[in-house]
Structures are given as structure tokens and as C-alpha cells.
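> call design_seq(struct)
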């Protein structure tokens, strides 16, 4: 029998989708940076906003270069690995801290914009984080499309608000006060509004799934043009509008420091648009109902909820990459039926909820303090790793500018650590917990009994032949197929073959050229016997669905479920020419169609899905999507 090689994840993220995902995090910063800046410096806060906008512009340019030199993924974890695994882990855990607080802060701010008080917003945010995480358990594929619509709606409303603010700029300039604090106090205040850098690190993690530039190839990937087209528009929108709104809010007299700390943009919409409409006869009804400020709340709140979803998925991606890289306990990388690392998803749900729950009455201040140290630290480690990596063919001016940027960002990180002990403690807890988990994984400091329990729980349960009712057994195979497959492949050969035979079902004369396998099911026997009857070449495709933003290398030898599928085929395919294909993808439809076209098949066989209606609603009908895009010359057979 011939064995095929694994395929890489498809590069199906174009610049528009990448920009939307980036904007979902980076673009939300203006929603709270302006209010926090005013709470810190009131009518001299424009200078803080201007300074952080200029730094944001420079950091954005730096990340265009990072994406240029890391087309397979240029996040902090990948960049720092060139120097030290420990440095990479520190950068990765700082990124984890960033995503933890991003999820909590974004969800909390969404409900502040929806009009809830701080305590009510906190309670609703906790519930919403749980619901978003529960939906992600099914690995929805269309978050990028939703992010595009949220981003477009927000951009349109923000442009309308910017136009409405322009006539008020002269009054705002007249109200801007000169800085009156000592230089050190202004520097500390500046580090308190550094949140505008949020989200820029996420674009570097996406380069491994971006569409290649024209002329590039998988052997020599290049995504410079795609990354630049994604970063530059978002960067300019963030910088220009944040600066504009940071100036325009000075036109509103007699505001107290914390009156609109969490919803400054909604207040600008009420003052500049709704109040202006009240004097226009045809629009006075809209103005009295605060229609425009409500629209601002809806689009920004929706984008913030999208950012919460993005942060949860990104948190799972980073931790999963570390687990697959053998830096965290292997059980964390176990996937459910939908390609989601379910243990990590639980962590990504519960950790932000805990971070939000321990905040005091005004959670915005506490979350902002915790947030800055993670995002700034990750950026500092990434840029510093690139600057000091002499193997990167960086141009002299690129390395010089990135070096200066690294020094500034590092100084900000050290300032935050010194002046905000709670932020330093939070970062230390996250990094310390990560290294403790790594030490336990490596067997350092873990009691032998506990070590065997963590890594041998499945084998322990199976060895004692714990009786499980049929319904629970099917539920276990559906939710935790990797654990079931690992136990199956660890059995002696006779028991293994007997178990595989029971799962394959009775013989049924059916035909196939390519079969897309979802597990050891009777569909495989259907395909094998039809291939034998027609003396056909049988291709067996196993697609490992993996819903992470960061490309994670996986091979067939590390996937027990794939091994069980291929072993099942080989056990019954005597006399049949078989080629096995292992693919890792976050878009199974694209992967199935692509492999069917490459193999030149005449018939595609898929097993009928018995998923519940809710699952089909959340994930979509895969077979229906395949049928819609399958070439006419390839017939589709669905085995029920």
C-alpha cells in the first residue's frame, strides 16, 4: 500500500479578512483610550493621546516588517524561539496575559457602551464570556466573516462621528491645556494610556494562514503585500481617529474626570450629533431619542464582543502551540470532534471570568493596568528578538528603527512593572504558572503518582474495564475522540482489530474513489469494498480540523485518531491500492475539494452527519457546502 504525506493548512485568509480580524482588536482601542486619557489628565490629555498615537504608528510599521520576515508566523513565540526556548515561553506567556485581559476588558467595555453601570456590566460580561466560549466549543468557521461586517459598520459610524466633530475642533484647540506635570509624572501617565497598542501582535500570528503574494510559492512563502494591505488601513484609522477624538473631546466644557471614562465616544456622539439634530426640524425626533449615540453604542459594543471572541480563540491558539511544541502538558492539546482543544477552551473561558470577577467596583481601571503589561511585554520581546536576530535579512534602516522602537517599548514595560505592582504581580503569576505547568510536564517537581495520573488517566480507566453505558460511550467518542483513539491504539493487536471491526460495521458493497473520513465508521468499509469491486485506486483523506489563528504543525504520527482511521482501512483493504492523505485545516470544505481535484477522482464519498440541529446551526452543513462547490465531473455519494 502507498502512504500519502500530510498537507499543510490552507492559506485562505486574504488581506480583507486579516484586516477585519486585526481591526476587531486594534480598532477597539479608541473606545476606551480616549476616556482613560481624559480621566488621567483631563483637558491636557490630548498630548497623551497624540504621543500614544505616534507610537502606535511606529509600532504598526515595525509589524509590517515582522510579517515580511516571518511568513510562516511571526508572533512573539516564533520570533523569540530563534534565541531561546525560555525567552519564547516568557514572550508567549506575556501574550497569554494580554489575551486574558483583552477578553475580559473588551466584554466589560461592550456592556458599558450598551449603557450598563460598572457592576451590571461586569455581571453581564462574565455571562457573555461563558456563552462565547461555549459557542466556540463547536469551532464556528465564520467568525472572520462576522468580523468583516462588524468592522465595516464601525468604520462607517466612526467616519460619521469624525465628520460631526470637525466643526468643534477650534473650540477644542482653545481648551487644550499645556502639560503642567513633571516629566516623570507625564511619562507614567503616558504608560497608563498605552492600550492603543492592543491587537497589533495578532497580525503577526496570522501570516502562516495568509494568502501568498503573487509570485510566491509554498516552498518560498511571502506575504509582505497581504500583511501590508491588512495593517496599513487599520493602523491609519486607529491613529487618525484616536487623535481626532482625543482632541475633539476637549470641546465639551465642564466634564469631570471620570464622567465618561468608559463610554467617551458615545458621549461625543450625543453632544456633536444628537444635540445638533434637536435644533433641526426634520431631525429633532432623532436627536431627542439619542439615535446616533445609540448607534455608536451598538456598533462599538458589537465590535468589542467580536474582539472578545477573537481574544478567546487567540488564547487557545497560543497555548495549543506551546502544548504541541512539548512545552506544556500533552493532555492540554486533546481535540474534540470539532477540532477544538477542549481543555484549553475551558481555560480560555474560566481565566478571563476570574480576572474580571476579582476586579473592584470600577473594573475598567484594574483591567487597564493588567492589560498594558501583557501587550507591551509581548511587543518588546518580539521586536527585540527580531532586532538581535542577525540571520534575518533586515535592511539597515529597518533594523535601526526597530531597535529604537524596542528600547522605547522596553522602557514602557519596565515603568509599568515598577509603578504598578498589581500589574507586575499579575504578569508574574501568569508566567510562573506557565513555567510550573512546564516543569510538571517535564517531570520536574511532580510526584510520580500525580505524573502517572495526568498522562495515564485514560489507560488507567481502560485497564480496569470500567463499565460505561452505550449512550455515554457514544458521547465520549463524539466529544473526546483523541482519548478514545489513544486507548484503542494502545490495545494488543487482536483486541485492536476486533474493536476496529465492530466500528467498521457489516460488509456493504458500495463504491468510492476518494473517501473523506471522519473516524472509524462503516463508511470506510463501504469505500474499500467498492474500490475492490471496481479495481479502483482508493484515496483515504483524514482532515484534522484545527481552529486556531496560529498555524500549528501536526503530523500523522502525532494524531491517534488519524492512525486509527488509516489502520482500520489497512486492516480490510487487502488487494486494494490505497493512498492515505493526512491534512490539517481550519477549512475542511476547501481541503476536501482541493484534494479531490488534485487526485483527479471521479467519485467522492462522505459519511452522513448525525450531528444535532444546534451543532449544524453553529457550524453549518459541511456536505451541503461541498456539494455546492464540487465540479460537475465529480460525483458525490453520501453514506448514511
Amino acid at each position: 500500500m502507498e502512504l500519502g504525506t500530510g498537507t499543510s493548512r490552507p492559506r485562505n485568509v486574504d488581506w480583507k479578512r486579516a484586516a477585519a480580524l486585526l481591526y476587531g482588536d486594534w480598532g477597539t482601542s479608541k473606545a476606551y483610550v480616549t476616556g482613560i486619557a481624559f480621566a488621567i489628565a483631563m483637558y491636557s490629555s490630548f498630548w497623551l493621546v497624540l504621543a500614544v498615537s505616534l507610537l502606535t504608528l511606529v509600532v504598526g510599521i515595525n509589524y509590517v516588517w515582522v510579517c515580511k520576515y516571518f511568513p510562516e508566523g511571526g508572533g512573539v513565540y516564533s520570533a523569540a524561539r530563534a534565541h531561546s526556548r525560555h525567552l519564547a515561553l516568557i514572550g508567549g506567556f506575556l501574550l497569554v496575559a494580554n489575551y486574558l485581559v483583552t477578553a475580559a476588558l473588551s466584554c466589560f467595555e461592550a456592556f458599558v457602551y450598551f449603557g450598563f453601570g460598572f457592576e451590571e456590566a461586569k455581571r453581564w460580561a462574565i455571562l457573555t464570556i461563558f456563552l462565547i466560549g461555549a459557542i466556540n466549543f463547536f469551532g464556528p468557521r465564520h467568525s472572520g466573516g462576522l468580523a468583516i461586517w462588524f468592522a465595516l459598520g464601525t468604520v462607517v459610524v466612526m467616519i460619521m462621528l469624525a465628520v460631526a466633530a470637525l466643526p468643534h475642533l477650534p473650540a477644542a484647540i482653545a481648551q487644550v491645556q499645556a502639560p503642567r506635570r513633571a516629566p516623570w509624572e507625564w511619562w507614567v501617565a503616558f504608560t497608563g494610556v498605552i492600550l492603543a497598542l492592543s491587537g497589533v501582535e495578532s497580525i503577526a500570528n496570522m501570516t502562516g494562514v495568509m494568502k501568498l503574494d503573487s509570485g510566491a510559492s509554498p516552498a518560498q512563502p511571502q506575504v509582505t503585500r497581504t500583511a501590508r494591505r491588512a495593517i496599513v488601513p487599520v493602523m491609519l484609522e486607529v491613529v487618525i481617529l484616536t487623535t481626532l477624538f482625543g482632541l475633539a473631546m476637549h470641546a465639551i466644557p465642564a466634564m469631570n474626570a471620570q464622567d465618561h471614562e468608559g463610554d467617551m465616544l458615545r458621549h461625543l456622539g450625543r453632544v456633536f450629533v444628537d444635540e445638533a439634530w434637536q435644533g433641526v426640524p426634520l431631525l429633532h425626533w432623532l436627536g431627542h431619542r439619542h439615535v446616533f449615540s445609540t448607534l455608536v453604542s451598538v456598533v462599538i459594543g458589537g465590535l468589542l464582543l467580536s474582539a472578545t471572541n477573537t481574544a478567546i480563540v487567540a488564547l487557545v491558539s497560543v497555548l495549543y502551540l506551546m502544548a504541541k511544541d512539548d512545552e506544556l502538558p500533552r493532555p492540554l492539546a486533546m481535540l474534540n470532534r470539532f477540532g477544538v482543544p477542549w481543555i484549553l477552551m475551558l481555560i480560555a473561558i474560566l481565566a478571563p471570568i476570574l480576572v474580571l470577577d476579582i476586579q473592584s467596583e470600577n473594573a475598567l481601571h484594574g483591567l487597564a493596568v493588567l492589560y498594558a503589561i501583557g501587550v507591551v511585554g509581548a511587543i518588546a520581546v518580539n521586536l527585540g528578538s527580531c532586532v538581535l536576530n542577525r540571520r534575518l535579512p533586515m535592511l539597515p534602516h529597518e533594523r535601526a528603527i526597530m531597535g529604537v522602537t524596542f528600547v522605547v517599548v522596553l522602557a514602557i514595560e519596565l515603568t509599568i512593572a515598577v509603578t504598578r505592582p498589581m500589574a507586575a504581580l499579575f504578569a508574574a503569576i501568569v508566567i510562573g504558572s506557565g513555567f510550573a505547568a512546564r516543569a510538571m510536564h517535564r517531570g520536574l517537581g511532580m510526584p510520580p503518582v500525580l505524573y502517572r495520573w495526568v498522562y495515564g488517566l485514560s489507560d488507567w480507566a481502560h485497564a480496569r474495564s470500567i463499565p460505561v453505558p452505550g449512550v455515554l460511550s457514544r458521547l465520549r467518542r463524539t466529544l473526546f475522540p483523541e482519548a478514545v483513539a489513544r486507548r484503542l491504539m494502545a490495545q494488543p493487536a487482536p483486541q485492536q482489530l476486533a474493536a476496529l471491526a465492530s466500528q467498521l460495521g457489516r460488509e456493504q458493497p458500495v463504491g468510492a474513489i476518494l473517501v473523506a473520513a471522519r473516524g472509524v465508521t462503516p463508511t470506510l468499509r463501504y469505500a474499500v469494498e467498492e474500490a475492490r469491486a471496481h479495481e479502483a485506486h482508493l484515496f483515504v483523506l483524514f482532515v484534522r480540523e484545527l481552529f486556531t489563528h496560529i498555524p500549528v504543525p501536526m503530523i500523522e504520527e502525532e494524531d491517534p485518531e488519524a492512525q486509527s482511521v488509516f489502520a482500520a482501512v489497512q486492516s480490510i483493504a487487502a488487494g486494494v491500492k490505497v493512498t492515505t492523505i493526512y491534512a490539517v485545516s481550519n477549512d475542511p470544505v476547501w481541503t476536501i475539494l482541493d484534494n479531490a481535484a488534485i487526485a483527479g477522482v471521479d467519485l467522492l464519498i462522505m459519511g452522513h452527519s448525525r450531528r444535532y440541529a444546534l451543532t449544524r446551526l453553529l457550524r453549518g452543513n459541511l456536505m451541503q457546502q461541498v456539494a455546492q462547490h464540487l465540479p460537475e465531473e465529480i460525483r458525490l455519494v453520501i453514506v448514511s
